[in-house]
From TrEMBL, chain A:
Record-linked SUPFAM superfamilies: RING/U-box
GO MF annotations in UniProt: ubiquitin protein ligase activity; zinc ion binding
Its EC number(s): 2.3.2.27
Protein name, as recorded: RING-type E3 ubiquitin transferase
Residues annotated as transmembrane: 187-205
Compositional bias per record (Low complexity), positions renumbered to this chain: 155-168
Principal location class: membrane
Organism: Caenorhabditis japonica
Compositional bias (Polar residues): 1-22
Keyword Metal-binding attached: yes
Residue numbers spanned by region Disordered: 1-24, 83-118, 155-180
GO cellular component: cell junction; endoplasmic reticulum; nucleus; striated muscle dense body
TrEMBL record, chain B:
Listed Gene3D superfamilies: DNA helicase RuvA subunit, C-terminal domain (1.10.8.10), Ubiquitin Conjugating Enzyme (3.10.110.10)
GO terms of molecular function: ATP binding; transferase activity
Keywords: ATP-binding, Nucleotide-binding, Transferase, Ubl conjugation pathway
Keyword Nucleotide-binding in record: yes
Record lineage: Eukaryota, Metazoa, Ecdysozoa, Nematoda, Chromadorea
Protein name: E2 ubiquitin-conjugating enzyme
Signal peptide: none
Record domain UBA: where: 158-200
InterPro entries the UniProt entry points to: UBA, UBA-like_sf, UBC, UBQ-conjugating_AS, UBQ-conjugating_enzyme/RWD
Keyword field contains Transferase: yes
Superkingdom of origin organism: Eukaryota
Active site: 92 (glycyl thioester intermediate)
Record family assignment: Belongs to the ubiquitin-conjugating enzyme family.
Residues of the UBC core domain: 4-154
Protein's organism: Caenorhabditis japonica
Length: 206, 200
């Protein structure tokens, strides 16, 4: 496929065809690999291939024990495709029989470096970014143990002031309650809690 | 047939018809009925193979679940090839069976079959007799495949005189030409064994 498109594209790459003139090749890049039509409810697999969600879902349904990408045959998972949201779409009614298109996953940006204080960089205007990280080894667990309850309070208190706080232990706000990620976080939080209690007891009695 | 299949087939046919590669690759299709369930494919025999110069016709049947299941493709021109039945024209090709992928099109299928004609896979044969000849007697295989190309695929090469006289001998005994060629080919052109096979 790539060889043929590169062959057919070659004559078009002359200066006459500029970006303001969409040609056939331009639109062909966004065609679903199954129905060969412009992709509706577009999703892209982790191997980078574009499909309509109804088409891909039907393909995966037809061979439940051989879940591979129809283009490159790499293993794919129907729940791990990335939906593509363009502008102005998405008004279509959710089709009754087809399972809903999986949601995009959001993750928080990585926390800033230890002890970094950023006083309003040019982009964010007067906003103050205040972040604190994880401290010395045993104490960090203690901090995270107590942090859970306090972080929420602190956040509530500071929201009014327009300041944004990124605590080392505060939960990522993007995870939806009940999702798998939230469950994992809950589990991790519990582990840290018990380790914290253990270390407190150890510090007090040894 | 679902709407998606019909739309897709129309695009695929257009792709094969309008693609500029056609003159180079030598694949063509012909639409037989309006709802595009039966299509005829043509493949020009690749150069530097025993099939060079021939034009091979294929029957393509589009199933109800297309493109989620593969099209049914078989040769209707007789061909002497380890992965094609010399009797029925059935093709042994993984992408027409379990390795089918919905992104494959009529064009890629025909190109794959053309590639199979260039490089036979005798270890996974459809016709065991042909495959055995391909492995044991490559020279006889080549001559036989060329003879079949001339006889059945309108090849331009000169017909192998020696083989033709043997076919004519069997024809004089009242055997149809097609059967005579087939039986002789299967018996490595040994006319005595072929006669025994036919009349026993």
């Amino acid at each position: 496929m790539s060889s043929s498109s590169s062959q057919t594209k070659a004559p078009n790459e002359e200066p006459t065809s500029s970006s303001n003139k969409p040609n056939a090749d331009e639109t062909a890049r966004f065609e679903c690999n199954i129905c060969l039509d412009a992709a509706k409810d577009a999703v892209v697999s982790l191997c980078g291939h574009l499909f309509c969600w109804p088409c891909l879902s039907q393909w995966l349904d037809t061979r439940p024990n051989n879940q591979v990408c129809p283009v490159c045959k790499s293993a794919i998972d129907g729940s791990k495709v990335v939906p593509i949201y363009g502008r102005g779409g998405d008004s279509a009614d959710p089709r009754s029989k087809i399972p809903p298109r999986p949601k995009g996953t959001r993750s928080e940006p990585p926390p800033q470096s230890f002890g970094g204080f950023n006083w309003g960089d040019g982009l964010n205007g007067p906003n103050v970014h205040f972040s604190f990280g994880i401290g010395i080894f045993p104490l960090s667990f203690v901090a995270s143990f107590f942090g859970n309850g306090n972080a929420n309070n602190a956040e509530n208190g500071q929201n009014g002031a327009g300041a944004q706080q990124q605590g080392g232990s505060s939960r990522a706000d993007g995870t939806a309650p009940g999702s798998r990620m939230a469950g994992e976080e809950e589990y991790l939080a519990n582990i840290f809690k018990y380790v914290g209690i253990f270390l407190l007891v150890w510090l007090l009695f040894v | 047939m679902s709407n998606i299949a019909l739309n897709r087939l129309q695009r695929e046919c257009k792709e094969v018809v309008t693609n500029s590669e056609i003159s180079e690759t030598g694949i063509m299709i012909e639409i037989l009925n309006e709802n595009l369930t039966e299509i005829k494919g043509h493949i020009r025999g690749p150069p530097d193979t025993p099939y060079a110069g021939g034009m091979f016709d294929l029957d393509i049947k589009i199933p109800e679940q297309y493109p989620f299941s593969p099209p049914n493709v078989k040769f209707c021109t007789k061909i002497w090839h380890p992965n094609v039945s010399s009797q029925t024209g059935v093709i042994c090709l993984d992408i027409l069976k379990d390795q089918w992928a919905a992104s494959l099109t009529l064009r890629t299928v025909l190109l794959s079959i053309q590639a199979l004609m260039c490089t036979p896979e005798p270890k996974d044969p459809q016709d065991a007799v042909v495959a055995k000849q391909y492995m044991d007697k490559p020279a006889v295989f080549k001559a036989t495949a060329e003879f079949w190309t001339v006889k059945f695929a309108k090849g331009h090469l000169d017909v192998n005189k020696e083989y033709q006289t043997r076919v004519d001998k069997l024809k004089d005994m009242g055997v149809r030409e097609e059967e005579a060629i087939s039986v002789l080919s299967c018996n490595n052109w040994d006319i005595n064994r072929a006669t025994v096979y036919i009349f026993s």
